[in-house]
Amino acid sequence: MHPLSRRKRLFFNISELISLGERYLLPIAFDTDIVSNAVKGYKLSQNEHFSHDVQSGEEQNVSAELVLQKALDREKQSVITLTLTAVDGGKPFKKGTMQLIINVIDVNDNTPVFSKSLYKARSLYRTRVPENAPFQTSILTITATDLDEGINGEIIYSFIERGKFNPGVLLYINSQTGEITVKGDLDFEKNRAYDIRIQAKDKGTPSRSVHGKVLLEVIDVNDNIPEIIITSLMSPVKEDAQIGTVVALVTVNDKDVGNNGLTNCKIIGSVPFKLKQNYKNYYSLIVDGPLDREHASEYSITIIASDEGSPPLSSTSVIAVHVSDVNDNAPRFPDPVISVYVKENSPVGATIYTISAVDPDTDENAKVSYTLLGISSKSTQISSVVNINSVTGDIVSQQSFNFEEVKTFQIKVNATDDGVPPLSSNVTVNVFILDENDNSPGILAPYSEHGSVNSENIPYSAEAGYFVAKIRAVDADSGYNALLSYHISEPKGTDLFRIGTSTGEIRTKRRMSDNDLKTHPLVVLVCDNGEPSLTATVSIDVVVVENTGDLQTQFRHVPPKEDSFSALNLYLLIAIVSVSVIFLLSLISLIAVKCHRTDNSFSRYSAPMITTHPDGSWSYSKSTQQYDVCFSSDTLKSDVVVFPPQFPPVDGELININGGDTLSRTQTLPNKDKGLRL
Asked: What is the mean pLDDT of the chain?
């Protein structure tokens, strides 16, 4: 016989939170056969949640239990259907089946979930609401879902208060549907956006909830008119006030934003004033034309300000400006002092500045002519420095300027109109000469520039950082053009010496080694910071000596300045003595020739007297005339020209001498005796 059970279906109600390993007793199958043909075992259909445990007993007493192996989840599978099979021991075996239906009982194990983590709808009446939205205007509807069923899946919506802000004052939320509507007055000027926290809570026990937020942006509406504020009103205004004179400051405020807050301000009517926008909504009321008290002593200026909203809103304000009388009208310069910058070495005849004066009068009274009044340098004629075009006001240079000689000078310019009587005004022009990089650096003693070799000695035991020498240089230019830097140009990449780029100090990088040379020729390059850069070089032979004592006595001894006698001074002394002898012989020969020709001509002149001065100059004098001749250190390279007394040079005449020296005649004695000075 087939094993049989009294029921073909068996139902189980099991909670989804039941613990693993929980057992449920299954019904016992019976078989009319006995002994070996009776029920021998059970089989359970394949599934992932349950297994069966067979318990052996006496004949016809084999039983089975249903065992939970994996946790149940009603949200994934609410009903599980299994088949239990009983098998007997006969041959062939026979079986009987029963269906097990397991209903998974729901518990509140799921939290509600919002459909969006952040609500920010893009339609106009969702999260962006006009500030004038009427009451009960729907903003948006929030939704949340709960996987549980029954009361565990029913959701209630609400606001969450945070601090002092209570969303329920301005908004209403339907607890059942989640719809949010307008409840109070939304004012963009008070608050442009709201961060609202919401809650979705189910009705299960215990209840579960989820929090979210809604960003509510308030849209500005053009509900504020522009406000005009007048400050710093200057009244009365002189009738000779220059164009651009500020009469008042005007500020326009609009509490709206965007186009609703953009304002335009203008003057209504034709008046000699205008509004100049300084920054955004800040304006200056300035004079925009000539004022004449005799024509109009008072102006009523109407200012209108309007925004760009839709529809636009506007407001007006009236300003009363009085005009005071003055004595009309002299030419006026824009500034009492003008600064002009001219590069040195600029060509002669260049226009360095065009000066201009304005006369508010008309016709002949407004015609202005320009003249130069003077220059700051008393020793210089203004006509030799600059000139001015009387019609155009062009100031033209009459010479090329040298910054190293003249850095600045000041001139005064007069502007006079053609009225009767004429009125005039003056302006001061400060001319600043701008330096050009036209001077190379000069090497200072005790070193000479490139072309001669200078020597310095250092001991073999010198440590790294040992001071070798310091190069000093100057530049006749100024500013960056005179900013000098020092570099070792040869040998390139030396690893034994370094030089401070700003100090010019030469120091060792490391200790000496046996592989190093005993003499190190260095070429130092001195560069200025001009454009283009000018340079100078100096050569130094650094000699390594073994004996430190010799270094101190032989190479480091510097004799006192008062005992030193340079080669230059020696050459100068020899030159002066040589020229003096030649000059003396020439004078003696000249006198002898004169005496031989005629006694009468010789009688007109007394015997000459030659005097030697301590500075190396010679004086040749007679009873009526005296000539001083001074020679420089380069005298040996020059040819001396001596004028006989019958051909004396006139006052101020320049006499060129070969070699670049110049003789000029100067009056030296009260009795009009004359002298030549080199």
From this structure: 77
- Among the listed residues 616, 646, 650, 611, the one whose alpha carbon sits nearest the alpha carbon of residue 633: 616
Q: Quote the CA–CA distance of 248 and 235 in Å, as a whole number.
A: 9
By C-alpha distance, which of 94, 118, 77 is closest to 2? 94
DSSP run (H or E) holding 102: strand 95-105
Which strand ranges, in their side-by-side order, compose the sheet holding 63-68? 23-25, 63-68, 50-55
CB 112 within 8 A of CB 155: yes
| Cβ–Cβ < 8 Å for 375, 388 | no
Per-residue DSSP letters for 302-323?
EEEEEE-SSS--EEEEEEEEEE
Closest C-alpha to 315, from 324, 307, 326: 307
CATH class as words, domain 113-219: mainly beta
Residues of the chain with CATH 2.60.40.60: 9-105, 113-219, 227-324, 337-434, 442-558
Rounded-to-integer distance, Cα 116 and Cα 651, Å: 107
CA–CA separation, 669 and 649 (whole Å): 16
The residue to which tokens 């300045």 are assigned: 561
**What does the alpha-carbon distance between residue 349 and residue 288 come to, in Å, rounded to a whole number?**
38
Domain 9-105: CATH class, spelled out: mainly beta
Residue 451 token pair: 């072309």
CATH architecture classification, 227-324: Sandwich (2.60)
Cβ atoms of 3 and 93 within 8 Å: the answer is no
Closest CA to 65 of 104, 1, 8, 12: 12
Residue 346: Cβ within 10 Å count: 16
* Domain range 337-434, CATH class: mainly beta
- Nearest CA-CA partner of 570 in 629, 636, 619: 636
Residue 522 gets the label, from left (phi > 0), alpha (psi -120 to 50) or beta, of beta
**Would you state the structure tokens that stand for residue 259, as one six-digit string?**
């186009």
Q: Exposed/middle/buried for 526, CB within 10 Å: 0-12, 13-18, 19+?
A: buried
442-558: CATH, from 2.60.40.60, 3.30.710.10, 3.40.50.720, 2.60.120.260: 2.60.40.60
Does the structure show a pLDDT above 80 at 564?
no
3-state secondary structure of 676: strand
What pLDDT digit, counting tens, does each position of 32-52 carry?
666 566 677 788 888 888 888
Q: Using one digit for the tens of pLDDT, what is the confidence trace for 137-151? A: 888 888 888 888 888
Separation CA 416–CA 333 (nearest Å) = 11
